[in-house]
Amino acid sequence: MHIASGRVAAITGAGLGMGRELALQLASAGMNLALLDFDTAALAQTASDCRALGVRVSEHVVDVRDRAAVKAAAAEAAAFHNGHIHIVFANAGVASIGAFDAMAEEEFDRVMEINLHGVVSTVRYFLPFLRAQAKACVVITSSVAGFFPSDKIGVPYTTSKFAARGFAESLLVEARELYVRAARDSAPGSSML
């Protein structure tokens, strides 16, 4: 799917880092945006900067661990954009570094809830709106850690990124009419387009 002026992209984790950079690149290309993030101030700044580029932007304060909130945000975004969501970037994510055997179970679970379950919920609840479009796309932010484990990156992060990549590849087989990809370039400021 080509990035095109007037289409609508939804982005989780849009307040900072890769999500913010992606939002600005898409807005520069003329795409309207549904921006999701739990950080209200960062989300507002990204939305303001994108609006300054002349596109329509809806803002949705949501923690991707909250499935009901993601579901509501997807419906609100689609309503704001007249039912049009063409691309979903399941980008929200966190890292956690430290020895697995010294890590609290809650920390491991937090990373999995955001990096895997948040991705799954985002895709699940935006999927009906994507299927309603003639062309649609899902992009799941993975990482090099989703391909190659390292002792420099924590076990929960690597596990979650392997799982997110597996989810993307499985979804590609199941939802053949959609273009699904797992983006592995995780350097802020790099082009994902």
What does this entry look like structurally?
The structure is a single chain. By secondary structure, the chain is an alpha/beta fold. It has one domain (8-183): Rossmann fold (3-Layer(aba) Sandwich), CATH 3.40.50.720. Helix content is 44%, strand content 16%. The chain contains five helices and six strands; from the N terminus they run E-H-E-H-E-H-E-H-E-H-E. A six-stranded parallel sheet has the order 3-2-1-4-5-6, sandwiched between helices. Helix 1 (17-28) runs parallel beside helix 2 (40-51), helix 3 (67-80) packs parallel to helix 4 and helix 4 (105-131) packs parallel to helix 5. The chain starts with 7 loop residues before the first strand and ends in a 10-residue tail after the last strand.
